[in-house]
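> call design_seq(struct)
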């Protein structure tokens, strides 16, 4: 079984709680499924859950090379030289990243975030469509910070062949 879930902002990617933080069990009532990969508490979007241990391991393993697509709202407007750094890979504390596929895009058609991102009148923002084939801890946020454009909002919209499509925040779709 595969469950596609649109994880809302400020929900832990686990079924058991830590204090008063929201968890997957608050949204998903499908027994025996586990996350194939995680999203940070402050990130949103597609989580793939499954009861197939081999599939879960394959998707969770950073060496699997499954493409993960993100819409990333960043502070400032990165130029092509900055984006080229991401396309070549950037050095992080835990080593060089693999090359990313990245381009500036118009704001995607998405739900409002509660609370909204911080807005500074003097600093513009823009959206990137960024695809990576790794899954290091907070990798996309660290990559955009490395090029001088901190992430303000991060939404994963694709994992391998599965996409978020029209699943609203907090809802899931069971496939297979």
């Amino acid at each position: 079984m595969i469950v596609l879930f649109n994880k809302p902002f400020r929900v832990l990617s686990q079924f058991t709680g830590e204090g008063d933080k929201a968890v997957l069990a608050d949204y998903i009532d499908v027994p025996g499924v586990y996350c194939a990969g995680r999203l940070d508490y402050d990130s949103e979007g597609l989580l793939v859950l499954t009861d197939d241990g081999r599939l879960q391991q394959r998707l969770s393993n950073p060496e699997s090379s499954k493409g993960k697509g993100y819409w990333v709202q960043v502070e400032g407007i990165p130029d092509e030289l900055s984006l080229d750094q991401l396309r070549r890979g950037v050095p992080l504390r835990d080593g060089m990243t693999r090359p990313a596929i990245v381009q500036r895009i118009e704001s995607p058609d998405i739900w409002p975030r509660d609370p909204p991102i911080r807005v500074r009148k003097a600093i513009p923002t823009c959206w990137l469509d960024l695809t990576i084939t790794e899954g290091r801890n907070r990798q996309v946020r660290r990559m955009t910070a490395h090029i001088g454009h901190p992430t303000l909002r991060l939404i994963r919209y694709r994992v391998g062949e599965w996409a978020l499509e029209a699943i609203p925040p907090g809802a899931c779709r069971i496939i297979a």
